[in-house]
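Hi P.,

Sorry for the delay on this. The queue was packed all week, but I finally got your sequence through. Input first:
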Amino acid sequence: MIAELTRNSIILQLLALASFLLGGSAFIGCEAESDGLKTAPASQPEQQRKIQLAPGYSRLGFEVPEPGSYKLPPLGYAADGQLLASDGSPVDLHDLLGEKVVILSLMYASCSDVNGCPLATAVLHQIASEMEEDESLGDGLRLISLSFDPTRDTPEVMRQFGAHHTGNSEHSGHADHSANSREMGNVVDWQFLTTGSRTELRPVLAAYGQSLVPEFDEAGNEIGDISHLLRVFLIDTSRRIRNIYSVSYLHADTLVADVKTLQLEALQSEDLGESRERENWSAQIDDSRAATGGTHSSTDAPGMGGSPDGIANLVDRAATKQLGLPQLVIPADNLLSTEKVALGRALFFDRRLSLNSTLSCAMCHVPAQGFAQNELATPVGIEGRTVRRNAPTILNVGFVERLFHDGREKRLEHQVWGPLLARNEMGNPSVGAVIERIRGIAGYESLFDDAFPNRGLAIETVGMAIASYERTLIAGDSAFDRWYFGKDDAALSEEEIKGFGLFMGKGACSGCHQISLEAALLTDGGMHNTGIGYKASMSSVDVDQPVELAPGQVVAVSRDLIAEVSETRQSDLGLYEITENPDDRWKYKTPSLRNVALTAPYMHDGSLRSLREVVEFYARGGVSNPLLDRKIRPFEIEEVEIEQLVSFLRSLTGGDVDRLVSDGDSVPIGEFSTLDGGDHLSAID
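Then the structure:
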């Protein structure tokens, strides 16, 4: 019976690995569905079709970036759990974390989806082979295969499952960090674990955002298959999650590069501050275990980060008029306070507000990227879902009268619920689900009580808190402001001044990006059709799409191939979707040009990648269409004038944006440190 449970999984992995090693076709027939890679029932040959194996079974088509040449941001702390080793002895997951870098794969032994659990195990098998040959890699890395099917994957089943993959049927499975491991030249540490029951498993699944759906036959009986989304976690020696791999991104070569990057990082950051932080965190875990009987979850309370002075400075910013900007108007029903701003900032950076605890507001509005997102034309939501519009900056958002590209919201307090509930963004199913999710994180309720006496955690106070933080993100006092409003003749260069002349003159940019004598938001707040939306909706594009596979590695991919693996493009009619007035088709909000040099790519769909492209687009007169805004007219411009106009646009960057970025970088992303045992939470990230 035990052999039956693992045989199909082993066979599928061997077939896929054989295809990879022999360089043959990366297509086979199997059953189930994983992350968009569809398969056909193997039991019905006449219905079989060749299906594409996940990238992890093939050789990469690009060179892996050099380890240490990039950084992996912390994604939160890895949760603990009560597990069983393959000899049946109990082990806490945290006992297996911290000593080495860990690759944690959640799986079940009888999975028959070749692009599911067998993929993860096959990739770990390839990494184990590299660990044999690379002593430094092997000494600093632990592999963990953790079953989420405790009913069938008993310790004995996991022992035999491990033996199939390690060639070692004698390992005992004691929880001593070296037992239950794959002994290949005494360098490979591979643990095969399970849990004692579904009750013990449940908090582990919740902490790692893993949802399971058992499959049933017509009589309502479980048939053994489990629908799930594959996830593999990379965890550093501080027990922080540093990457999460799905089917499309799981490959031994890139994973090994990530592991080596973390190993190099550890060698380079052994200063006293890092050591104290790690020791402090470990002490907190031990203290918490003593208080709770052994199990500790690192996702228990909101991370406040930074210092109280930093919060006070944010509040002061909002109350102080900055050069070039009007006085910020604070709604009478949501006056600013340090408590509201601190709470809103914690919520803004907390990934646990999304359905699977992986996406925060700050993931699309990245402080270091102008509180926008520079890498992608349009952001990626939870589980890699497509978002159809570019992420606008939230710098100076407190001055904005129309929110979202289509202008559908008027108040920041209401706007926040859009992305929280959008299926392709943060993915929460309902307002109530968000409230209960926040309520379930220790520490938040008391913070809401402090910020909103007699009201506490509620639908309106969630929006009020986040809006309070966002209103403090004010960035004026640019070089242009000092020249134009401050009368500092030396604040702009000659080239920038000539660019301003073009902006006001033949470029006619100020027709929509207005400047008054007292202040300049550099937007008219209106809705305009530039032709970008019309072109996307009404014309087909046959040219190849440049795709950056890795830093400096760009390939041209045919549109037909992209269409085969992509979601169907969603239509986008702009303001029309709000008003249903045909004349409003393809109208979008005029963005402010303040800090525009920080917020590429541009336009509502991120289709223009640089300020030069934007200038050239408007010089051509936009895209002709029956509803093109009358203000959009072509004009002649010389190469030197393009440079001058772009230089002027760069002069619109706020004078102390770096301070806002530094404050944002100080906030943990959903983790906590109760240093004094109370509700005063500070960053440990």
